[in-house]
């Protein structure tokens, strides 16, 4: 088992700096998820940890050793690639054992590791099949198995479950609980990130925006980008201007903000999670229902108030229809307040 310590990492392709002075400490045994939109540098960061691309600046330590210039095979990592292409002519067993055979691992040891990984991933009955005879999910399991047999201290996963079922996700989490290895997992899917991670690293344009537990990044997003990236339905963002008294807000949602946080005339954006809007008859605001989405165990109610769209979650089974006027309220202590200019949390 090993942690990973990245300091001042810079990666350039020509003049394009894709990773910009990035610092990151991955704790031993944690499940760290790198989350961000397409092109933000997630795969590039992972490839640099694996030693597949040269760094332009900075250091990478794995298990306490400086591995910045080490060969991929020396780094003690197992990796599942974004394009996890299996060798089509090889059986599942041969696909899983390929790396070990190339490395000259003794036959009995290869058999032990493949057997163990196959059992963990429920691949044992499929070991003699070729990739073409497998479902998409089974192929993804083989790609994970190929990394697991390395019995490495650090596993790197580049979107291995994209478009995959929640069940395999739970299996991977159980696998991590069993193995206790350090795992760094890349995804652009916030549900995957929330459900798998010990900690989430939110990235944008090669720069870390926030690092925290799923609860921390969800409940106290560091900036507008993080607020908008996590949560479905998305957080309600309500622009407002602070009144002359320095605490009250004009506009669609007149309310009072904590004194000292904001100043008179300051432009702010309120971040309100849909689950924090409470429908209640004596609520301070009235909004018109535009659209209702039944979700089975709850409803998503889309409303408008003075031109501002707002979504709310309703769990109590009441009947709500388009055109209804609903009274609602919110708990100010659950608000996120961002500066409209810097977009940072206040
Ligand atoms: N070999 C390369 N040469 C030049 N530019 C590259 C190279 N690899 C990646 N890039 C660029 O670096 C940026 C980051 O790419 P990267 O693959 O790391 O993104 P990503 O976050 O993994 O995105 P996705 O979610 O789409 O996989 C992109 O703008 C990409 O075009
Ligand atoms: Mg990628």
UniProtKB/TrEMBL annotation:
<dbReference type="GO" id="GO:0140359">
    <property type="term" value="F:ABC-type transporter activity"/>
</dbReference>
<dbReference type="GO" id="GO:0005524">
    <property type="term" value="F:ATP binding"/>
</dbReference>
<keyword id="KW-0813">Transport</keyword>
<keyword id="KW-0547">Nucleotide-binding</keyword>
<dbReference type="GO" id="GO:0016887">
    <property type="term" value="F:ATP hydrolysis activity"/>
</dbReference>
<dbReference type="GO" id="GO:0008643">
    <property type="term" value="P:carbohydrate transport"/>
</dbReference>
<keyword id="KW-1003">Cell membrane</keyword>
<keyword id="KW-0067">ATP-binding</keyword>
<dbReference type="Pfam" id="PF08402">
    <property type="entry name" value="TOBE_2"/>
</dbReference>
<feature type="domain" description="ABC transporter">
    <location>
        <begin position="4"/>
        <end position="230"/>
    </location>
</feature>
<dbReference type="InterPro" id="IPR027417">
    <property type="entry name" value="P-loop_NTPase"/>
</dbReference>
<dbReference type="InterPro" id="IPR008995">
    <property type="entry name" value="Mo/tungstate-bd_C_term_dom"/>
</dbReference>
<dbReference type="GO" id="GO:0055052">
    <property type="term" value="C:ATP-binding cassette (ABC) transporter complex, substrate-binding subunit-containing"/>
</dbReference>
<dbReference type="InterPro" id="IPR003439">
    <property type="entry name" value="ABC_transporter-like_ATP-bd"/>
</dbReference>
<dbReference type="InterPro" id="IPR013611">
    <property type="entry name" value="Transp-assoc_OB_typ2"/>
</dbReference>
<dbReference type="InterPro" id="IPR017871">
    <property type="entry name" value="ABC_transporter-like_CS"/>
</dbReference>
<protein>
    <submittedName>
        <fullName>Carbohydrate ABC transporter ATP-binding protein (CUT1 family)</fullName>
    </submittedName>
</protein>
<dbReference type="InterPro" id="IPR047641">
    <property type="entry name" value="ABC_transpr_MalK/UgpC-like"/>
</dbReference>
<dbReference type="InterPro" id="IPR012340">
    <property type="entry name" value="NA-bd_OB-fold"/>
</dbReference>
<keyword id="KW-0472">Membrane</keyword>
<dbReference type="InterPro" id="IPR003593">
    <property type="entry name" value="AAA+_ATPase"/>
</dbReference>
<dbReference type="InterPro" id="IPR015855">
    <property type="entry name" value="ABC_transpr_MalK-like"/>
</dbReference>
<dbReference type="Pfam" id="PF00005">
    <property type="entry name" value="ABC_tran"/>
</dbReference>
